[in-house]
């Protein structure tokens, strides 16, 4: 199995077919709008947004988009994520269904608030 390394989220997105690139770009835009102060990087080989620590990650796979809002994000939106395949801090959006951009935005906003609170507690 070939391991890919990407320099940036742009490089990551360019590695996929056009239809997937459109989805990845929209997720990126959604996260940026929900967390304008967040920085972008590649962590664990996938697109990552950071704000006072890791905020969210996302990735494309053969049949789904993986979204990683941390276990706390999953817990906060337990009802909303119930229709998706999930794990401890992960969820899968099937490519044959609409991507829930509003849910992604809400989860990112929650994670920003959570990281701000954690960060201010550390400073005290």
TrEMBL record:
Ranges for domain YdhG-like come to 23-112
Recorded hits in InterPro entries, A to Z, give: YdhG-like
- One Pfam family from the UniProt entry? DUF1801
Which domain of life does this protein belong to? Bacteria
Protein name, UniProt field: Uncharacterized conserved protein YdhG, YjbR/CyaY-like superfamily, DUF1801 family
């Amino acid at each position: 199995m070939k391991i890919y390394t990407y320099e940036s989220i742009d490089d990551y997105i360019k590695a996929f077919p056009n239809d997937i690139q459109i989805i990845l770009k929209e997720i990126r835009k959604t996260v940026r709008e929900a967390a304008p102060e967040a920085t972008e990087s590649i962590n664990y080989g996938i697109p990552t947004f950071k704000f006072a620590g890791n905020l969210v990650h996302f990735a494309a796979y053969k049949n789904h988009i993986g979204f990683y809002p941390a276990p706390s994000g999953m817990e906060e939106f337990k009802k909303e994520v119930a229709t998706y395949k999930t794990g401890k801090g992960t969820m899968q959006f099937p490519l044959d269904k609409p991507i829930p951009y509003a849910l992604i935005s809400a989860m990112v906003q929650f994670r920003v608030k959570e990281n701000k609170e954690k960060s201010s507690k550390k400073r005290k």
